Amino acid sequence: MVSWRLSRELHESAGFTSVSRLLSGAGMLVAVALAAQLLGSSWYMGRMLPDTMIGDQNVGNLTLPQARVKLESMAASYNVALSIGGQQYSFTPAQLGITYDVQTSIDGAYNRQRTTWFFAPGKRSSTLTYHINTPQLTAAIGAVADKIGTQPVNANLKVLNGQIVTVADKDGFTVDRVGLARLIEQNLGTGTPAHLATVPHREPAAILASSLAPSIAATKQLMNTQITLTYGTQVWTPTSAAIGSWLTFQPNDSSATAPVLEPVVDQTKLAAYVSGLAKQVDIAPVTQLETVTNGAVNISRIGVNGTAINQAAVVAAVSSAVMSQQALNYTITDGPVAYKTTVTNFTVLDLPSYVEINLKVQHMWVWQNGAIIYDSPVKSGATGAGYPTVEGMFHIYYKSTDTWLNGESMGPRYNYNDHVNYWMPFYSGYGMHDASWRNGNFGETSGPLGYWRDGSHGCVNLPDATAEWLYNWSVVGTPVWVHE
């Protein structure tokens, strides 16, 4: 009995020792693991854990600044190569409105690995953080789609010389813009340069040539409308070809039974036809011409009213008849057109003879004994360029022929040396002369050839015939009145 108890105690003592040793060994393993974790955490403080992936970039074992440099390099080199219908395009993130947030990507990956067991096997992956400027991405995709895609062309009708001609429809090709945007966005989180391809899809026209038979039948009915227009003894009966030339065609979605293209009267085309009739019968008014000389009015031509047909009423009546397919017998009415009056004001000087030059209207009159004996358009100084013609009462102080006019004596801005046949100076180097280089451009008051910019350096340029006449008529001392 004593022997059995001793044996049992010895056995229990041995088992306890084994368990103690096992627990002691496990504790040591845990301690070693904790020590390794602490050591690893200390080593990887401010550094990425092994096999850390951000997008397609392995930044394991890199310090945070090193990881930032690597990701920024990736972001700078990222691009999207796009193939659409055989056309190749390449885009940078900036062109697509994409901005990579490198710092947020690094911070997120780093903070997540702080909660990860150091010895956990496998890669630690996270996507790149990015922001999209949606309007800019849409605009970039739209620009490509507009280049590649073509809009479908609906079938149409037109009337040529009375014949109804069908214009065939054409298929279009369009790019799925929404789908293309999704393709681009699916790749952004990896940072891997994208090589994307898509094919434009066929888009049929909404109106097909095969569906135009009802529209052609409706057009023929409109063209057969009987129309008679009468004005005095004049009678016009438009042909079916003429009526067809007034028609245009509009898509009609109002009824499933209506023609897909509805023939309608084009008001502009019909108005052009009626305008042609008006030219045959309208009587233009005669402008009344009046001159006012020192307050006294003289009518050199009496004004006469004209007549004109009421074109708008004709257009409305004919258009309504055609569209309702009702025969029309229409008597055209007319109305008076008042004449206009042109008034020319003159102030006659108490001089036996003189030359008057009006800068505002760019014209010259030669007066003798209170009457105009000669007039002509002129070209005066380029006021807008700083070369105005002087205003005032002057006189011709000498005359010469076959003369070279050199502007150097007037200052460096007057850089010309021109030959004239007739020279009649009236004030300090300014005068009247021919100017063959004007090529007949005289009298313009505005526009690119107006005197304001295209005028002389201050002289009064005359047509060749005017300069010759004035030279032969005038004498030294002839007064010259320049005014606006």
Notes on the protein architecture:
This protein is an alpha+beta fold and about 475 residues long. The protein folds into 3 domains: about 45-155 and about 175-210, Ubiquitin-like (UB roll) (Roll); about 210-340, Ubiquitin-like (UB roll); about 350-484, L,D-transpeptidase catalytic domain-like, CATH 2.40.440. Helix content is about 35%, strand content about 30%. It has 12 helices and 31 strands. The protein has a 5-stranded mixed sheet, with no helix packed on it. Strands 27-28-29-30 form a 4-stranded mixed sheet, with helices on one face. The longest helix has about 40 residues, at about 1-45.
Care to give the gist of this entry?
The chain is an alpha+beta fold. It has a five-stranded mixed beta sheet with strand order 25-24-23-31-26, with no helix packed on it.
List keywords for this structure.
Ubiquitin-like (UB roll), L,D-transpeptidase catalytic domain-like, 484 residues, 30% strand, 3 domains, 5-stranded mixed β-sheet, alpha+beta
Strand order of the largest sheet: 25-24-23-31-26
CATH architect. name of the largest domain: Roll
Alpha plus pi helix count? 12
Question: Which sheet architecture does the biggest sheet show?
Answer: 5 strands, mixed
What would the average pLDDT be, to the nearest integer?
87
What is the tally of beta strands?
31
Q: What is the CATH first-level class name of the largest domain?
A: Alpha Beta
The percent range for helix content is 25-40%
How many domains comprise the coordinates? 3
Radius of gyration: 48 Å
Task: Find the structural class using helix and strand composition.
Answer: alpha+beta
Shape: flat
Through-space gap between termini: 153 Å
Strand proportion, as a percent range, falls in 25-35%
CATH topology of the largest domain: Ubiquitin-like (UB roll)
